[in-house]
Amino acid sequence: MKERDEIARYRQAAAFLPVRLRKLAETLPGEKKVVAEEFRLRTGRPMTVLLPEGESSPWGSEPPVEPEELETLCDLGAEFSRYAAAETLREGFLPVRGGFRIGFCGSAVMKGGVCTNLTDLSSANVRIAREKTGIAEELSERLLSGGKFESTLLLSPPGGGKTTLLRDLIRCASREGLRVGLADERGEVAVCYRGRPQMDVGPCTDVLDGCPKAAAIPMLLRTMNPQIVAADEITAEEDIRAMTMAAGCGVKLLATVHAADVEELSQRPLYRQLLKTKVFCRAVCIRRTAEGRSYEVEELS
C-alpha cells in the first residue's frame, strides 16, 4: 500500500507537467517513482528527475525543454490565472493543489528594488511533496514527555529531512492538544492551498502562510495564543529576535537550522548568536544511514 501511495504522489505531481513531459514521466520505472523527489526543467536541456542518489536524465535522448513548455507548466500550476497567483509567483514559486510546489527562474521584473514578476521563464522545479506521517512518533514521546515541551532545534544539512520531521512533530504536539502557531514563510510545511493545509499538521495548529518569520511570529502571539511557535529554517538576525521575544512571553519554540550538528552550529556567527540567547534547550540531529534516518537528541548548555 505504501509503495502504491508513493507512486500515486509521483503521478499527481507529474500531472502538472505539459503533456509531452507528463508522458515521459510516466515511463520512469516504478522503483524510481517511489523515491523521486523533483522534476527539473531547463530550457534547451532534457527534463531530469532528482533521486536520492542525485539528479539524472533518463530521458536524455528526448528533445529538450522548450520555453513554451515552461509557460504551460506555469499556467497549469496557476490554474490559468497568473493574476490570482501573482503574490507567490513574484517570489519564484507556486503552491499547487495536493501539497506540491513549483519553483521558477527567469527574468525578474524589478520595481523599487522588489521583484514584482517573472518573465521569460528559463527553468522550473516541480517538487514531489511526500508526507511521512508517523516518523516522529518515537521522538515525540521523548520531546513531549509528561505533556511538557521544551524549545527544540532540528539540525541537518540541506536535504536531510528537517522540514518533514518538523511537520510530523507539529502534528504530534497538536494531536496532544498543544496549540501550535506555525510561521510557514515559504509554504513548505503545511502547504496551504486556498487557506487549507494540504499536509497533516494536526487539529490544534494555526498556520500563518507566506509571511516572513520575523513578522509572522509576533502576529501569531497577538492573535492565536500559541503554546508552541514553529518555523522552518532560521536564516536571519530578525528571526532570532522574534524568537527571543516569543520565548520571553513564555512560548516554546520548534525550528529548523541548516547544520550537521551542534558543533557546526556553534562555528557560524549567526547561530552562535542564537545559542547565546539560550532560548533553545535541546537539539535533534538528523543522521542519514543505510537503514534510513535516525534522530539524536542533545541537550544545549
Question: What do these coordinates show?
Answer:
- By secondary structure, the protein is of the alpha/beta class.
- It contains eleven helices and 15 strands.
- It has helices at residues 2-14, 19-26, 30-35, 67-77, 86-89, 137-143, 162-175, 213-224, 237-248, 262-266, 269-277; strands at residues 38-42, 48-51, 54-56, 93-96, 100-111, 114-127, 152-156, 180-184, 192-193, 196-197, 205-209, 228-231, 252-258, 282-289, 292-299.
- The strands form three sheets. The chain has a seven-stranded mixed sheet with strand order 11-8-12-13-7-14-15, with helices on both faces. A six-stranded antiparallel sheet has the order 3-2-1-6-5-4. It has a two-stranded antiparallel ribbon with strand order 9-10.
- α8 packs parallel to α9 (237-248).
- The radius of gyration is 20 Å and the shape is globular.
- The protein starts with a helix and ends with a strand.
- The model has no long low-confidence stretch (mean pLDDT 90).
How would the blueprint of this fold be written?
Elements: H1 2-14, H2 19-26, H3 30-35, E1 38-42, E2 48-51, E3 54-56, H4 67-77, H5 86-89, E4 93-96, E5 100-111, E6 114-127, H6 137-143, E7 152-156, H7 162-175, E8 180-184, E9 192-193, E10 196-197, E11 205-209, H8 213-224, E12 228-231, H9 237-248, E13 252-258, H10 262-266, H11 269-277, E14 282-289, E15 292-299
Parallel strand pairs: 7-13, 7-14, 8-11, 8-12, 12-13
Antiparallel strand pairs: 1-2, 1-6, 2-3, 4-5, 5-6, 9-10, 14-15
Helix pairs in contact: 8-9
